Amino acid sequence: MSRVVACASTSFSRGAVITNARALGKSPSVRPRHPASRKHVGSRIARRAADSSLARLALQNHFERVGMPLTDGTSITVRAMRPEDVRRVAEVMRVAFEGTPDERPRARVAKYLVDRLAEPDPDQCVLVATLRGDAVAVASLSFSELARGNPGSATRGEQTGSRSVPCPLDAAYLCNVAVDITHRNKGIAKTLLRAAEDFAKETGHGDVWLHVRSSQPAGFALYLKSGYEVEAWETFGGGGASFGVFEKLASALGGEKPDVALMRKRLDAT
Q1: Domain boundaries, position 217
Q2: C-alpha closest to that of 72 among 175, 185, 156
Q3: Which 3 state secondary structure label does DSSP give 45?
Q4: Which of 6, 73, 75, 105 has the most crowded CB, counting CB atoms within 10 A?
Q5: Tens of pLDDT along 8-62?
């Protein structure tokens, strides 16, 4: 399509202007293209995106919170996962989700962790909490739909959370929070959560989103106490297990029992 040159209230095609000039014995005047062509603009955008990705990867590699105190007088260090953590973290996750709808074979969990290290992703990070050098807890953060593997995207990961009540596409999303069974009731989960929120803020996010099952009341209570609020419920109707206090919400949800809660915490309010 030819570029249109406007003159008063009439527009002429570029070819027509050149033809008319030649007919009058004049040399056609054609503007040279501006050096900031689409190709050049695209290259600059690509370079900025690459620089931004490198900066986010560098943040992952250098993120560390040392000496975060626990209730028993000890302290943990929270940092990005390293190759030497994989075996231990895979076992922590396997045991933590055993017997739940989120249970996965150990080999599958280990592959997920190895893939995170083999192909570093600026939009996805696995944080571990270490106690005396031993990885005792884990939490994953993702910052894009692609990293989370949501339906309809060109997925690189697995689907996480709920399909019916998804979090915003580019939000900071927390998942896979797990603490070693022998180190619970020390405040590790709450402390790791605080470090994950610090990481989200350093990446420029003003809130953190997550999904939690109503059948896991300890986790739900942890998030409520940590300042997270329920944004939406995914429900199922008929049958199912009893969820104690959540049963009381059934009447407000059309007689259905709550299953998965979408929760959000605004970090600028902390």
Answers
A1: 64-269
A2: 185
A3: helix
A4: 75
A5: 323 323 343 333 444 445 444 444 445 555 555 556 655 665 678 899 999 999 9
The Cβ of residue 158 has, within 10 Å, a number of other Cβ atoms equal to 10
Angle between helices 188-202 and 217-225 (to 10 degrees): 50
Q: How many Å apart are CA 246 and CA 252, to the nearest integer?
A: 11
Q: How many residues does the chain have?
A: 270
Please tell me whether residue 148 adopts helix, strand or coil conformation: helix
Neighbours of 151 (CB within 10 A): 9
For residue 195, give both structure tokens. 């470090």
* 33 found inside a domain: no
Cβ–Cβ under 8 Å, residues 161 and 132: no
Asked whether residue 39 is assigned to any structural domain, the reply reads no
| Tens digits of residue pLDDT in 59-101 | 999 999 999 999 999 999 999 999 999 999 999 999 999 998 8
Question: How close are the terminal C-alpha atoms of the chain, in Å?
Answer: 54
Asked if residue 22 belongs to a domain, the reply is no
Domain count, the chain: 1
Residue 2: both structure tokens together: 């030819």
| Distance from C-alpha of 257 to C-alpha of 248, rounded to nearest angstrom | 9
Helix 106-118 × helix 86-96 angle, to 10° = 140
Q: What is the DSSP string of 162-226?
A: -SSSPPPTTSEEEEEEEE-GGG-SSSHHHHHHHHHHHHHHHTT-SEEEEEEETT-HHHHHHHHHT
* Total-model pTM: 0.73
Which CATH number characterizes residue 132's domain? 3.40.630.30
